[in-house]
Amino acid sequence: MRVSVCVFILLLIASGLKAEDGSGLWLRNNFASPVNVVGSHKSTIFNVAKQELLNNWQGKENATINLLVKKDKRIIGDGFLLSSDKIQANTDLGILYGVFELLRQQQTHQTVSEKVYNPSYELRLLNHWDNLNSSVERGYAGKSIFWRTGENGLVVTENDKRIWTEYARANASIGINGAAINNVNASPDILRPDRLERVKAIADILRTYGLKLYISINFSSPKIVGGLSDSDPLNPEVINWWKEKVKEIYTLIPDFGGFLVKANSEGQPGPQDYGRTHVDGANMLADAVKPYGGIIMWRAFVYSSEEDDRAKQAYAEFVPFDGQFRENVIVQVKNGPIDFQPREPFNPLFGAMKKTAIMPELQITQEYFGHSTHLVYLAPMWEEFFHSDTHQEGTGSTVARCTDGSIFKHRTAIAGVANTGTDTNWCGHHFAQANWYAYGRMAWNNQLTSDQIADEWIKLTFNPETNVRVALPEDWSVNFLKPIKQVMLESYEASVNYMMPLGFHHIFQASHHYGPGPWWERDGVRKDWTMPYYHNADTIGVGFNRTITGSNAVAQYHEPLKSIYGNLETCPEEFLLWFHHVPWNHKMKNGNTLWDEICYRYDSGVKQVRQFQVVWDKAQPYVDAGRFDAVQRRLRTHAHDAQIWKDACLLYFQEFSRKPIPFDIERPI
Ligand code: GCU
Questions:
Q1: Is the ipTM above a cut-off of 0.90?
Q2: How far apart are CA 380 and CA 488, in angstroms?
Q3: Is 455 in contact with 481 (CB distance < 8 Å)?
Q4: Which segments within 512-619 are labelled E, that is strand?
Q5: Which atom in ligand 1 lies closest to the alpha carbon of residue 184?
Q6: Which of 86, 154, 388, 623 is the most exposed place for a label (fewest CB within 10 A)?
Q7: What is the rounded distance in angstroms from the CA atom of residue 459 to the CA atom of residue 462?
Q8: pTM of the model
C-alpha cells in the first residue's frame, strides 16, 4: 500500500502535475510528445523557446518545427508568423512568444493555421505596488515576491530565483515584456546601492524570458538619497545627480527599461514643489535615460481637494502640456477619471492629448472589487474600455485605437497593476489568476474578447485531460466549461450591481476600500476623501452633477459624447449617477422609478452571486478538491458581502429617498 502511494506521488512529481494548489497557473501541461526543433540561433531566449517546445509539444509525434529569426515586413516588433510547422519572427523574443502561442493553441484544442500575430502595444508592463519592506499596497495575495525584510532580506536565495523565474515564464507566456518592481509610492531607498544590487539580480532573471525591468522613483531622491539641498528639476546639481544615478543603474543593468513616476499626487513629491511643471520633471528624467534608450512613464493620476470635481483634474492639468513632453516620455493614464472604480466612463485624456504618447493603466489587483475574496473576472470591463469611442478623430476613435498607434503615431505601451504575491496560487483567489492572464492577452491584442480569453483560461487551468490529443470530454464542456465561463462573464456586472450600479462610484468604506461606506466622512478630512462627495444624496435625488449646471466635466468629452452624457434623457443608464443628480422618482427606461431601480439592481447583484454558488457547487466532480474548496469558501463570503453591500447601501440611501424598499430587506448584520 505504502509503496503504491509513493509511486503515485513520484509520478505526480515527475509529471510536474500541480493539481490542487494553483501554483502552476495556466501553465499546467504535463504531457509532451517528441518533436524535432530546427533552428540554431544562439541566445538565452532562443534556447528557452526551444526548450519550451521540447518540454510541452502536444502535436503530431516526431513532427519538425522550424524556428526562423528572419525579418519580414508583415511582422512588427515582437510579433511572429505562426504555421503548423514554422515560427518566424524578427527577434528571438518573437520566437518565444510564437512558441507559447503554438502551445496554447494545442492545449486549447485549436487547429493551427498560418497567421501573423503582432502586438497591440510595444511595451506591455506589470506595475507592482510592492514596498521594500515586503508588504504590497493594495495587494491581497501575501507578501512581495521581490522584496523581503529581515537581516538577510537583501540576500538573493535559490527560492527567490525560482519564484522570479516562474513569474517571468508566466508573463512571457502571455506576452508581458516588462515589470516595474516597486510601489509607485516609491521609497527613495530603491536607489541605494544595496537595493540596486537586488534590482540587478531580479533583472538578470526576468531577462531570460524577455522582460525588461523598470523601477518607480521618488522625486525627492536627490535630496533624500543624494544629500542635495533640493530636488528641483532645473537645478544643475539635481540634473547631474540623476545622470550619475542613471549611469550607475545602466552599468548594473544594461537593458534597464526606465522610471515610473508618481509626482505631485496624493502627497508624493514632485516638480510642483519647486514651482516647476510635470513637463519640467518628466523631461529632465527623460534626458537622463535617453542616451541608454530608457523611457519615463509619468503618471497622470493627480487631483487636489481645492477643485470642485476630482474627475476633471487630470485632464485640466495635462492637456495644456500636450506636445511638450520628450519623445521618450509616456504619460500613464488610469482607465477612468477617478480611480479604478467598479464602472467609470473612460478617462477623457484618451484621444485628447494627440501629440503625446499616452498609455492606459489598468488595475489587475482587485482594490475595488472585493480584494481576493470576490470572484470578479475583469476582462469584460477592459473590453468595454478598449471599445469606448472617444470620437476624438471621428467615429471609431476607440480608446484602443487612440493608444495602440492606429491613430496617433507615438510609442505605445500599457500597464496593469499586478495582483501577484507569495500566496501559493500567486493571486489569492484561484479565479484572480484569470485577471493576470486576461491582462496579458489583451495587452498583446486589445481586440480579443473577454469570452475568448475566459474560454482559453478555463481550458488551460482546469482541463482534466493530460493528453490534449484526446478530445475534451463532452460532459466537461457542457457541465463545467460552459457554466463556469458564464459565471466569469457575468461576474463583473454582478459586482457593479451589488456595489455601485447606475453610475454610483467611490462609496467604499474609507481607506481599505472593501465594504460599503456611502456615509463615511470625518471632520478635518479633505472633502474628496469623504464619500458623500461622490453621491450627493439629498431628499430630492442622488448623483454627481457633472453637466453644465454642475462641474461641467462632460465638456472634457468630445462631441457627441458631451451632449449624450450631458443630457439626462440620453445619458447611458450605467453612467446616470456619474454625470447627473437625478430625482428619486425619475422614470428609468424600463418604467421603474430611479429609487426602485437602484433597489432592484442591488438585489439582482446579490442574486447573481448566489447563482454563482449554485453553479460552482455543481462543478465539484470536475475540479480537484483543493481548488474546489477554496473557491467554494470564498464564494460563500462573497455572497454574504454582496448582501451586506445591498442592505447597507439601501438602508442608507433610504434615509434620503424616504421611499419603501420594494422587497424584504434581509439584514444579515
Ligand atoms: C489609489 C490607491 C492607492 C494608490 C493610488 C495610485 O488611490 O488607493 O493605494 O497609491 O491609487 O494609483 O497612485
A1: yes
A2: 9
A3: yes
A4: 541-542, 582-583
A5: 13
A6: 154
A7: 6
A8: 0.96
pLDDT, tens only, 221-240:
999 999 999 999 999 999 99
d(CA 276, CA 613): 54
Tell me the CB-side half-sphere exposure of residue 388, using CA atoms within 13 A. Answer: 25
β-sheet bridge partners, residue 63: 35
Q: Separation of 402 CA from ligand 1 center, angstroms? A: 25
Domains 123-450 and 501-544+581-657 share a fold: no
Distance of CA 636 to the CA centre of its chain: 25
Cell of 494: 454582478
Overall average pLDDT of the 94-119 stretch: 96
Q: What is the three-class DSSP state of 359?
A: strand
Candidates 437, 428, 417, 431; CA nearest to 364 is: 417
Q: Cell 419603501, residue?
A: 660
Nearest to 163 by CA among 421, 437, 427, 434: 421
123-450 to CATH, choices 3.40.50.620, 3.20.20.80, 3.30.420.10, 3.40.50.150:
3.20.20.80
Q: Single out the catalytic residue among 52, 160, 232, 367.
A: 367
CA-CA-CA-CA torsion sign (476, 477, 482, 484): positive
Neighbours of 431 (CB within 10 A): 28
Distance 95 CA to ligand 1 centre (A): 36
Peptide bond between residue 291 and the one before it cis (omega within 30 degrees of 0): no
Residue 604, CA distances (Å) to 475, 501, 537 in order: 29, 10, 22
Mutate to test the pocket of ligand 1, among 182, 301, 362 (most ligand atoms within 8 A of CB): 301
Map residue 624 onto helix, strand or coil: coil
Instruction: Give domain limits for the chain.
Output: 1-30, 34-117, 123-450, 501-544+581-657
Report the CATH number of the 34-117 domain.
3.30.379.10
Q: Dihedrals φ, ψ of 582, to 5°?
A: -110, 135
Task: Answer yes or no: are the C-beta atoms of 159 and 151 closer than 8 Å.
Answer: no
**CA 149 to centroid of chain Cα atoms:** 26
96 in Cβ contact with 44 (< 8 Å): no
CATH number of 501-544+581-657: 3.90.1330.10
- How large is the average pLDDT for residues 250-258? 98
> Is the pLDDT at 3 greater than 50, yes or no?
no
Ligand 1 contact, 137 CB (< 6 A): yes
Reading the block at residue 367, the C-alpha cell is: 482594490
For 250, other C-beta atoms within 10 Å of its C-beta total 16
> Known catalytic residue: 248?
no
Residue 212 contacts residue 180 (beta carbons within 8 Å) = no
Exposed e or buried b for every residue in 552-568, given b needs 16+ CB within 10 A?
Answer: bbbebbbeebbebbbee
Residue 232 appears among annotated catalytic residues: no
Mean pLDDT score, 292-306:
94
Q: Which residues contact 175 (CB under 8 A, 6 or more apart)?
A: 78, 97, 100, 119, 124, 440, 441, 443, 444
